[in-house]
Amino acid sequence: MAGGIRRWYAWGVVSLVVVCLIVAAMIFTGTRRDDPSFSQHPGFDAYFAAHPPRTTLPSPVEQELLRRHRPHFFLPGGHAGLIDFYEDYIAQGTLYDARGGVISQSVDQALLNAHKADPAITFEHRQAPDAGQSPTVLARIDYDDVELGEEAGRFTFLTYHAVFRHSGLAAGLVFWQTWAAAFAGNLDDWHQLDHYTAATLVLDESSAPVALMLQQHNYQRTYLLGEAYELPADGRPEIDVAIRSNELYPHAGSRREHRSVRFLDPVSFKYMLNAGRRPLLAAADITDPAEEQDYALAFVSPDDAFYTFKGRLGARRSLPGRDSPPGADYNTLPWMKPLHRQFLLGYWRPGRRGDAERLNLALERDDWRAAFMQAQSAVLETNLLCARRWDSNCAFE
User: How far apart are CA 334 and CA 322, in angstroms?
Assistant: First the structure.
């Protein structure tokens, strides 16, 4: 017994030293004022030059479609709730130039759009005392060709961005992660602004809903209707907001834990498929829905600063991962921007042996993401045809 205690104590001391070294390294290798925004990652400029964002609002018909399918969002108890991006966030803060000089302390949609193309600009939010908030979800519609097997169809993507004042870390951190993170920053306010929290309902070429896509951390999940998710009778997806991190998951009637990682690198991807070891920085998102959030639905054009701002839409902070994001269109790597790729690469099922086997084969190639996406497309085609028939005897591959 005493030997076990000594071993536990020794392990704890070693772990504490390691954690301290990690935190120190993060502090001394943190972001600097001249560090580029994620919008400057190679490939974004070329992608948006070839695919310029739409400059107009959704048409009346498109707006009606977006209203018809607007999601139900369920919050955990005590959550601060959704906000309006411009009225509750941008209107309360300061816009800075590349040298830290004040551009304006009275920022609105027009001013933010006037500076949206400059990656050196930073907006820092300062919540006004006793300020209220107006929960608002921004909706847009996009179209993309999706190839499934030998057939291609023009799919419709209805995307809804829930906006939060700040983003925290996953609620299911293990004890040493909690200690290290608490030493380094605020667990509830890890970085300002959370607007990558997007839910996308996917409609096929016949305008029938076929899948729900949810952004979770730095990756997408595709839930096929009839297989992994059922759309309610009113046609509006039901979505749970995770405690602290705000990540989105299909609604459940009780508390749930969800595996999560920062990025889907090979080790993390295997873990998410229940086919590999737990990475060092894995954690669990926790959903525990307590109440539905009422909100207004609003529309801005896809070229608006909400989507396309190249600078930072929140305060500069010294630790990696605590710096705030650019516009919502910079939600993934440039190669992954086409919606059909996000749709296909996001189709994976934890515990499904076939998915794990296809991933292992794909990892033998340098372009493993493209290889896995191609392999999954054939499976998705089969399962989508099955789901369309709503055959209770269908066995999904």
Answer: 21
